[in-house]
Each structure stands twice: as structure tokens, then as C-alpha cells.
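Task: fold both queries, return C-alpha cells.
Query 1:
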Amino acid sequence: MQGLILAGGNSSRMGREKPFLPLGNSTFYLHAKQLLEPFCQSVYISCSPENQHLFQHEKTIVDEPKFAKNGPIGAILSAFNHHSGPWFVLGCDYPFLDKNEIEYLISNRKLQSVASLFYHAENEMPEPLIGIYECASFEKLLHFFQTGNSSLRVFLTQNDANFIASNSPEKLTSIDTPELYQRMKGTIK
């Protein structure tokens, strides 16, 4: 399995680059990378061509022009063109996520599904940026994109992904605004 840290967004709601936000003695993207390293053959940082220089000491996958500016779906398709997968995809802005949750997701993985990922039990919404996208998902995901679609949540629900309820749903919190970041700094060690 390969790891893909999604760090190529505009961070428009945050107002500054999320991957480099301090998290204890680390940063958001390094925390995500360290979580995946024990489980993945290699971990890559997904980024835009404009931001690739910020990750000069990392393995990167730059969004391909035909997929660029389409959000996470473009990053995942670019990753599949780089390596056939499977890909453990993780957004860089999940600072509460820990090794236990990663292990739990992997232990409940279904290889025959297009993807295995967490969902939020309270609203039954899938969390597409914490999940394993199997090799078989590439052709379906590419066709979905080529027909004008870019929502990973729609793709996953239409293609019978394996949805897993987290034991600790609070660990699935994405930090994407300055207010959430300030609150997080008061609660995380």
C-alpha cells in the first residue's frame, strides 16, 4: 500500500497553508506522514505545482494538468497514474487521528470494495479523505471524473464503498478554520 497525504488545497478557509501549521513539535503534514509510514511502502505528499518547492525533501506527486484544480479527486487520480496502488489517502488536517484509528481502518478493510473509509455515524456522511482506495477503484473513479463529476462522497456512495464507523469519531475532526485551530491548540498535546 502507498500513502498519499493531501496537502495541495488552497487553505482558503484557514487563511494560511494548513500543511505547515504547528502541531506540538511537528506540523500537520508531518503528523499525517508519520501516521502512515508504518503501514505504507512509501508516503507521498500530494501538492500543486506551485507548492512543490515547499516539500523539496519529500516524495511528492503533483496534480497532473488534466486533473488539476479539481480537489482531492484530481490528487487521487494523479496518484493512481503514478503508481497502481492501493492508496491510503489522508488529508493533512486531521490532527486528532492516531495510530489506533489507522489500525482499526486497515483491520476492517475489504479488498473487494472500491475503498474502505470512515463515516460519521451521527450524520452517516463518509469521510473520503481518510481511507484506502483499492486498485480496482481507479477505472471507476476515472470514468466518474471524465463524465463531469468531482465529488468523492458521491462516487463512494454510488460504488458501494466499505464504510466503517469509527470507535472514536472525535478523532475524525478536520481542522480547516482559524477558530477550529485555536480550539484544537487548547485540547491537543
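Query 1 returned. Query 2:
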Amino acid sequence: MRTLIAGVGLLAACFSEQPRPAPPLLFLTLGKAFVRSPDTLNGTVGANDPDGIDSVWLTVGSVPIGGWDGVLATEFTTSFRVLIGPGFTGGDRLPIRVKARDVAGFQGELDSAVTVSP
């Protein structure tokens, strides 16, 4: 009887959900949805990964804003402040991209945008 119980327990362990490697989960919080040209955009960027965060990058428009060392923490958060220069017209959308890599080498991306108001 004990053998049967141990066998059933072993069989259940084989079919249970196992954690799978995955890219970091990313988040982006913007201080405002619309900016003027020129203006300043503030926000927070972060990443979570049970394996640990290697690095996080932020790009606004085509300009790389920052690259941060995740110091192998499972949760990483930092704030940023970006100057939006002159030359944009009302209705332009500035793409915002967050990328992060975990210590296992998996990379995640999150895309967003902010709109230039007239």
C-alpha cells in the first residue's frame, strides 16, 4: 500500500506545473500622457524576474535615455526625467521602449508612447 501511495505522489509530481524560464516582466509609469515641445517627462520604469535582473534600458523617441544595472535583484525600479526638445508638432507620438534582460539571458520589451499636444 505504501508503494502505491509513493508511486501516485511521484506521478503527480511529474504532471504538476513546473516554472518555465521567461523574460522579465516590465512596467512603465508616465507622469503625463501628453507633453509639449519643449517639455519634461517624468516617470518610473521597472522589471521583475525571479532569476534576477541583469540590466534595464529606456529609449524615448530614438534617443537612449538610460541603462541601469539590475544588480541581480528580483525587483528593480527607478525613476527618470527626460527633456523633450523643441521641434515636435501637435499630434506627434514619441515612442517609449523599455527593455530588460535577466541573468539567464532572457530579454523582455515593453512599448508605449506619449503624444505631443499643440
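Both queries returned. Flag for query 2: DSSP finds one helix and eight strands in the chain.
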